[in-house]
Amino acid sequence: MISCMFFWTLVLFGRQGYSQAQDNFLSVDFSILSLDNTSQPVSAVKIDTTSTDRLNVLCNVSAIPDFKQFIILSINTINQNGVIQRLAYMSGLNQTGAKPLSDSDITPIGNFHATKPTLGISLKVSNLSCEDTTKYKCSLAYVNNDYKPEDISAIRSLTVSAPPSNLTMMAINESSSLPITDVGFTSANPAAFMVGQSVNLTCIARLGTHKDSTIKWNKNSVAIGNESEYIESEADLVKACDYEKTGSLFYNITEEDAMLTSNNRLELQCFVFVADVSFETPADARQTFYIDVYNPKATTTTTIATTTTKTTTRQYIITTTASMGNATRNGDVSSSSNDQNRITSMQSLAVSFGVMFIRYQQNQM
Ligand SMILES: *[C@@H]1O[C@H](CO)[C@@H](O)[C@H](O)[C@H]1NC(C)=O
Ligand SMILES: *[C@@H]1O[C@H](CO)[C@@H](O)[C@H](O)[C@H]1NC(C)=O
Ligand SMILES: *[C@@H]1O[C@H](CO)[C@@H](O)[C@H](O)[C@H]1NC(C)=O
Ligand SMILES: *[C@@H]1O[C@H](CO)[C@@H](O)[C@H](O)[C@H]1NC(C)=O
Ligand SMILES: *[C@@H]1O[C@H](CO)[C@@H](O)[C@H](O)[C@H]1NC(C)=O
Ligand SMILES: *[C@@H]1O[C@H](CO)[C@@H](O)[C@H](O)[C@H]1NC(C)=O
Ligand SMILES: *[C@@H]1O[C@H](CO)[C@@H](O)[C@H](O)[C@H]1NC(C)=O
Ligand SMILES: *[C@@H]1O[C@H](CO)[C@@H](O)[C@H](O)[C@H]1NC(C)=O
Ligand SMILES: *[C@@H]1O[C@H](CO)[C@@H](O)[C@H](O)[C@H]1NC(C)=O
Ligand SMILES: *[C@@H]1O[C@H](CO)[C@@H](O)[C@H](O)[C@H]1NC(C)=O
């Protein structure tokens, strides 16, 4: 009885005499618990609303050599302003009734043990938002073998990250200064450009929490080198946890582009790259602009398109392109390349303009 009173006196009056014990006896452990109860230590979590996993944050007390009796173990968050909020705690003084208790709406987890208690919280991964990026602090007060109170704590940051999501592509025909909306965005409906013309592609990318992402450009699956100009904006926070960045590519169509075969047309593609996590936008989420390149200087057989003229702008342009001089898309093999169809450039031009004129008149009717 005497010794018991002595113990309580120490606990109640000895607090200001708490000394800082070594911190490596206490750690904050983050782990992902799957449905099959397998557990995987982690240091960061990705937002995933479809996940069935749980994130467990545990205060882990490893063997403390002079551990006589623990007083209280608590798990807290520390926000950006340094404000500490206790989430759960466990008292070691009532050894019969001790269990994790909650200060919040989060159900605490853990087990009472006289010298190796565990305490933590368990969160659904599907319920996490990047606002859950915070510091967790575990604090343990205990009495050592000399009946001296000790205070130890451990702090660890948890990063909750949102991956880059979607990309939106826009195109401007720099040769006409008009936005392109009707062609180019699917492989089935490519845009037509002549060598020497230019297109300006813009990609708006949602970066999630990865504001250090860059927008990259591929030409036919290969990184575009310095033959093109590309510019990138700074990342702006557009909504909680979602940065946005704009990149644009000013591309001059070259004669080399016209050498591409018809089933390997010019494809300009944007995607997001995050260096520190080696992330690249997956293939099916990238944005691609498809271009059929025509070369007015190419010396290939010219055929005059025989498609019936419709009054849509696009068909009008394509018909015009196909009948200009020796203009051809390389790789296109003329379907009627007999000699009678061979005509000189001047004849071809004359015929073309005639056809255009007739069609123009038809279009007006
Ligand atoms: C996982 O653990 C919980 C609680 O201990 C138990 O109820 C459940 O049956 C376990 N699930 C599997 C797949 O072992
Ligand atoms: C607690 O920490 C000890 C020592 O660092 C480690 O061996 C053990 O695996 C940890 N326990 C859990 C549940 O993470
Ligand atoms: C200890 O816990 C038990 C069970 O929860 C409870 O019945 C008892 O009153 C507690 N004792 C004290 C001193 O808090
Ligand atoms: C999920 O999040 C909501 C809102 O933040 C919260 O009210 C709810 O308790 C959370 N549920 C779980 C299981 O964590
Ligand atoms: C794609 O991103 C844009 C902004 O860049 C946004 O307005 C749009 O809602 C997003 N679309 C989808 C399907 O997420
Ligand atoms: C772009 O503009 C040029 C000049 O007006 C025109 O020749 C070309 O067909 C246009 N291409 C597209 C895809 O709009
Ligand atoms: C390309 O278009 C974007 C969006 O209109 C514009 O901000 C950018 O300056 C253009 N790039 C060039 C080189 O003109
Ligand atoms: C493009 O890069 C290559 C190799 O990095 C260099 O030799 C060349 O001069 C560069 N061209 C321009 C126009 O900067
Ligand atoms: C593209 O063409 C424009 C206009 O002719 C020129 O100013 C620009 O330097 C060219 N860009 C590249 C990368 O060759
Ligand atoms: C068109 O092709 C003919 C031969 O097929 C060639 O003689 C002529 O120079 C070419 N015209 C142009 C403008 O390249």
Automatic annotation (TrEMBL):
It comes from Dreissena polymorpha. PROSITE patterns: IG_LIKE. Residues 1-21 form the signal peptide. Keywords: Signal. Residues 179-272 form the Ig-like domain. It comes from the Eukaryota. This is Ig-like domain-containing protein.
